[in-house]
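Bumping with the actual sequence this time:
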Amino acid sequence: MKRIKFTAQGANSLIGGFSSGDIMRVDDALAEHLVKEALVAKYIETEADLATEKAATKARKPKKPDPLLAEIAELEAKVKGNPNSDQAAEPQALLDAKRAELAAK
């Protein structure tokens, strides 16, 4: 039995549908067919390889936007609109505090 990771999307009558990134353990002949003939998978040799693949997949997932960044952008727009007025003093103070909070993360 070999462990493989799919690099393409497709389907096979023995294993059904698969997508890029799916990991499966299959018999040696099927693994060889998928890796060398169909070119839709690659071998995962060790547990360390599997851990690396999982970490890489996790790292590719999009991150949720940080609400703090949205607040900073909004305050920057307020300050930029009135840079020298007294109305800019309060947003500037809030902006400085939010930037410090972001830097502390």
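The tokens above came from a reply further down the thread. The chain has a mean pLDDT of 82.
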